[in-house]
């Protein structure tokens, strides 16, 4: 005959263990198991204060209560974002190090730099698409050019005479101007600056004929009556510049919309379950009404999309800039 008293004693001990473990078991979830337990670093490849930095800090603050580890912002500027991208590509693939990615280090640099220590589409995995910081072309208010077709007609009649300022050689500002010149079959002389501020000063002073930069940089100049935007490199007119046509509307030229995207990427070996959890949480933040408001204040448009959509955008962006760099025989300085 079996010893039922021993079985009863074992059952009681087992039940006590379950009771002790119940609180821990009730708080456990698969998503929580996927999150990294150590602090999560979000590397921002630009100095503090700019639109991308504002986006990164807002996103970090919103994610802090959603992920298991505390969020830490690390500004790692230099080489158009390449330094930060390299650091993330080499980081542990556990979801604890993320990149606030832009096209500069992902879809432009590989075509301009002879040597890079990472391959963006092999060493980094897309997590989510968050925003777009649209580009525009503008002239000073005193300019004789009232429309983009007028400017391009003069550029075609006098090849190389008209100048446009950019925020630096090899930046999306520079390449967007080159894309316009190639698409319109004109010659525009590129004048690089170290950022938008000095470029805008020379535009207003009349030292350059036009500027290609972010719409957000131009909006204060438009509001103060110092600049006139001739077109935006977007598919539809911007809500912040409702009376300004897109470049395609102004010229009839296609393939001149340029997404200046901002997204999140991680080391390529990061487990798919971790990537999915990060994607889901970022998208929950992205669709909040407060996110749209905060990003618009920073001059960005909210674009909420997952990892596959970001991967497709990077693919298209890479092809676009590869063609522009090759046709223009452009070199990094």
Automatic annotation (TrEMBL):
Keywords in alphabetical order: Signal
Coiled-coil residue spans: none
Signal peptide as annotated in the record: 1-33
Keyword Signal carried by entry: yes
Family, as annotated: Belongs to the UPF0065 (bug) family.
Protein name: Tripartite tricarboxylate transporter substrate binding protein
Native source species: Comamonas avium
């Amino acid at each position: 005959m079996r010893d039922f008293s021993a079985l009863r004693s074992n059952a009681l001990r087992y039940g006590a263990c379950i009771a002790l473990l119940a609180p821990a078991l009730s708080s456990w979830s698969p998503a929580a198991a996927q999150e990294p337990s150590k602090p999560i670093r979000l590397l921002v490849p630009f100095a503090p204060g700019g639109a991308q930095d504002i986006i990164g800090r807002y996103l970090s603050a919103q994610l802090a209560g959603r992920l298991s580890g505390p969020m830490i912002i690390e500004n790692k500027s230099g080489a158009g974002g390449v330094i930060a991208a390299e650091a993330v590509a080499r980081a542990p693939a556990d979801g604890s190090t993320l990149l606030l990615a832009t096209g500069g280090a992902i879809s432009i640099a590989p075509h301009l730099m002879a040597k890079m220590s990472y391959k963006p589409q092999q060493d980094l995995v897309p997590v989510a698409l968050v925003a777009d910081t649209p580009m525009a072309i503008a002239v000073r208010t005193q300019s004789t050019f009232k429309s983009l077709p007028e400017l391009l007609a003069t550029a075609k009649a006098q090849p190389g005479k008209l100048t446009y300022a950019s925020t630096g050689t090899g930046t999306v500002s520079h390449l967007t101007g080159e894309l316009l010149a190639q698409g319109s079959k004109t010659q525009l002389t590129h004048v690089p600056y170290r950022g938008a501020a000095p470029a805008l000063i020379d535009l207003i002073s009349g030292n350059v004929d036009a500027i290609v930069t972010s719409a957000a940089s131009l909006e204060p100049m438009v509001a103060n009556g110092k600049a006139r935007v001739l077109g935006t490199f977007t598919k539809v007119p911007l809500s912040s510049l409702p009376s300004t046509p897109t470049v395609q509307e102004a010229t009839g030229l296609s393939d001149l919309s340029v997404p200046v995207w901002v997204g999140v990427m991680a080391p390529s070996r990061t487990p798919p379950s971790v990537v999915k959890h990060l994607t889901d949480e970022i998208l929950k933040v992205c669709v909040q009404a407060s996110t749209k408001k905060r990003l618009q204040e920073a001059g960005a448009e909210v674009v909420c999309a997952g990892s596959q959509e970001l991967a497709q955008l990077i693919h298209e962006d890479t092809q676009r800039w590869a063609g522009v760099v090759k046709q223009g025989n452009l070199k990094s300085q």
